[in-house]
Amino acid sequence: MTYGEYMQGHVKGEKDIIFVNISWGVGIGIIIDGKVYTGKSGFSGEFGHVNAYDNEIICHCGKKGCLETEASGSALHRTLLERIKNGESSILSTRITDEDNPITLDEIIDSVNKEDLLCIEIVEEIGQKLGKQIAGLINIFNPELVIIGGTLSLTGDYITQPIKTAVRKYSLNLVNKDSAIITSKLKDRAGIVGACMLARSRMFES
Predict the structure, then answer these.
(1) What is the DSSP string of 40-93?
(2) ∠ CA(89), CA(95), CA(98), 5° rounding?
(3) Residue span of the signal peptide, if any (predicted)?
């Protein structure tokens, strides 16, 4: 995803970039001086598994308190179902009892863009939580560009504005003034484009 956005997205010469993929889980891609940083074993970017919360929610990795237990597509899905079951109203409320056709993340994203207030509220809360953690990344890496991508980026300003607000609040002013925060041009296609571009690059290298 990171390479796809770097090669075919909004990047216009920037060399230090963080790509935040917010889908069912959360991950980041890091480009330093124009090169993708993968870490020693290729596992860099597991941003969703930073221990961020003192909760009892078990992440799919088996640990508790991971960022993506409260700020991810899976958290959005779980929280929406919980709040509908507790009596809050959504255009998806009638779907909650349809066990043969469960509510999907794509439907929730679509509901946000149809201005469903409950879905919007949860997405904005997730944006605030992500923004606080992204502020830490900005303090550490001082990137020129932070690109928000993945499925939740399809909600547009509903996710990006809370992220930007939290980043301004929690990152150092001297650092965050260097970092533009934008939405991915490739949206949820960044992974496919990146894989193709990377394969082509390696073919020419060999």
Answers:
(1) SSS-TT-GGGSB-----PBPTTS-BSBGGGTSSHHHHHHHHHHHHHTT---TTG
(2) 145
(3) none
Q: Tens digit of pLDDT for each residue in 41-54?
A: 989 999 999 999 99
Q: Model pTM?
A: 0.87
Closest to 149 in 3D by CA, of 106, 186, 176: 186
pLDDT at residue 26, rounded to an integer: 97
Token reading at 124:
């904005």
Q: Which two tokens stand for residue 48?
A: 């969703």
Closest to 109 in 3D by CA, of 58, 63, 150, 50:
150
Q: Give pLDDT, residue 197.
A: 45
Q: Report how far residue 159's alpha carbon sits from residue 147's, in angstroms, rounded to the nearest whole number.
A: 12
- CA 170-30-139 angle, to 5 degrees, is 25
Residues of the chain falling short of pLDDT 50? 193-194, 196-200, 202-204
Statement: 2-205 belongs to CATH 1.10.8.50: no
